[in-house]
Amino acid sequence: MEKKRRTILLSGASRGIGRAIAEQALRDGHRLSLGLRNPDVLKGSLLDPAISGSDRIQLVPYEAVDPEAASRWVEAADAAFAGFDALIHCAGILLPTPLLFSDAQGHEPELLLKVNLMGPWWLTRAAWPRLQAHGDARIQVLVSMSGKRSKGCLAGYASSKFALMGLCQTMRNEGWESGIRVTAICPGWVNTHMVEGITDFPPEAMTQPQDLAALSSRLLELPASAVPFELAVSCLPEV
């Protein structure tokens, strides 16, 4: 059976997991609208419209903390591709904000919530009417194992991810009857720049971005009756 080709809005494709997922989706034949803080970072790469074709890739300036940016992106994608049927949230930040944060860290809890929770919320809200109208849409959200349990002292990050998991559950509830299927992807340590200086766990023993991209790719192929809500992936035993 021929693979279903989707038109995907994907945030956080400049590097790491988001970039790996975007590149895999392109290889799979999907069309991509990529929202980035600086679209120029993808010039000369596989994800450059000048290389892979503007009929397959669109780059849009997008700042997760700006609600209006989400609306502008959705309108640009709609204009370029006459609609879309998938949304993949990969944008996020990791800050080592502890429970007893210092005065200098006082802005960090709010920033983590703005990017990790409200960014996906605003974008989902803007994209929802198009996804709902499609009848067989998909949403993937890069949450984290930190959205399922807190094992360390990253109070700010874990709080933002627990909140994001709650948002994912509500997305699932709200979209079910319209054919929207939501998957919260929850990896542990992943070999990306984001975790540098946070852990001394060997990079080669971590989950690799390409492996998460392969899982994301498979999720896009599954029928509505078989899409898992939660996909937990960890390089360590979890309790």
Folded structure, characterized:
There is one protein chain. By secondary structure, this protein is α/β, with parallel strands linked by helices. The protein has 6 helices and 7 strands; from the N terminus they run βαβαβαβαβαβαβ. The protein has helices spanning 16-27, 49-52, 67-81, 108-134, 155-175, 209-221; strands at 7-11, 31-36, 57-61, 86-89, 138-142, 181-187, 230-233. The protein has a 7-stranded parallel sheet, with helices on both faces. The radius of gyration is 17 Å and the shape is globular.
* Helical residues, percent: 25-40%
Tell me, briefly, the overall form.
globular
Low-confidence stretches: none
Strand % is: 15-25%
Q: The biggest beta sheet, please?
A: 7 strands, parallel
CATH superfamily: NAD(P)-binding Rossmann-like Domain
Secondary structural class: alpha/beta
Rounded radius of gyration (Å): 17 Å
State the separation between the terminal residues, measured CA to CA: 39 Å
Secondary-structure element string: EHEHEHEHEHEHE
Number of strands: 7
Question: Quaternary status of these chains?
Answer: single chain
| CATH class type | Alpha Beta
Give the CATH architecture. 3-Layer(aba) Sandwich
Mean pLDDT across all amino acids: 96
